Amino acid sequence: MKVSDKLSVWGALLFSGLPATAANILWTTSPAVDTTEVNNTGLGQWAYAFNSSLTGNVTVNGVTFTYLNTGGAGGPMADANALTPGFQRFGTTSYGEASDAFYLGPNTQLNQILDGLTWGGNNQFQLNGLTPGTSYIVQLFSSDDRATQASRVLDIDSSWSTPNGSRQLENIDYTAGGAWTDPAARLKIFTGTFTANGPTQEIQTLIDDGNNGQIDLNAIQLRIVPEPAAGSCLFAAAGILGIWRRRKPA
Fold first, then answer.
1. Which of 9, 105, 156, 237 has the fewest CB atoms in 10 Å of its CB?
2. In this predicted structure, what is the pLDDT of residue 250?
């Protein structure tokens, strides 16, 4: 193993052992109709698509997702987390599945990352290896259009301790429960922006069907928010240089 790989492993272990922090996440939602809903701005940190039958990578809107079968028919959560550096789930087991019925929407590109999912354990996620003071974009993809899931709704929050009734997103209809109709009313892509206040970040995801189950997670990605100040400085420098050249005697 290379020295850099060893440092990455030890760094992941160190960050995962620290208490999770909960900076405020500002969430926006979208219905998984257009490929452009997959955010490709800034600098990608990692992107995972969960599927029990596919391997390798798939690129959607310029973002390359790594296919992962985290646990198959039910493996230890620790083993599943080892496959997803930067993303950690807390619980006992993880289940991976694939089905053409998870996403019944019209977009064949999105179909590639929404027709597989992982679930199990509980409702606590953690992002690891963050740089305090850096702004990030996190995207959660959750779609389960099987008819048996018609009554389920989804809650999301940036703190594990937020009680029901005061979470940031509550009772979100993320499943068509069969045939795809009125997609705008069903929200399947959840985009959060936040500035890290520590090396970790909490995310709570809860399926509200009376069982308090974990999210049906199809895919997830983390990106560093682009810094417009850098571009502004370049434009300003170019303007100053242009003025200097115009004023310079021939």
1. 237
2. 52
Q: Which residue has the higher pLDDT, 222 or 164?
A: 222
- Tell me the H-state helices in the chain: 3-17, 77-82, 108-114, 228-247
Task: Decide: residue 173, CB within 10 A, 0-12 exposed, 13-18 middle, 19+ buried.
Answer: middle
Is residue 188 a contact partner of residue 220, using CB atoms and an 8 Å limit? no
The mean predicted confidence, pLDDT, of the chain is: 84
Strands 93-98 and 57-60, by their bridges, are unpaired
117 closest CA partner among 142, 138, 135, 139: 142
For the chain, the farthest-separated pair of C-alpha atoms sits apart, in whole angstroms, at: 79
State how far Cα 145 lies from the chain centre: 19
Strand partners, 159: none
CA dihedral 206, 87, 223, 108 (to 10 degrees): -70
36-88 tens-digit pLDDT: 999 999 999 999 999 999 999 999 999 999 999 876 667 788 888 899 999 99
Domain regions of the chain by residue span: 3-247
Residues 167 and 156: their CA atoms lie apart, in Å, by: 7
Among 8-17, 35-44, 166-175, the least confident range: 8-17
Residue type, 237: A
pTM of the model: 0.84
Inter-residue contact 152 to 195 (CB < 8 Å): no
Decide: helix, strand or coil at residue 75: strand
The reported pLDDT for the residue numbered 167 is 95
CA atoms in the 13 A half-sphere facing the CB of 193: 9
Collapsed DSSP state (helix, strand, coil) of residue 155: strand
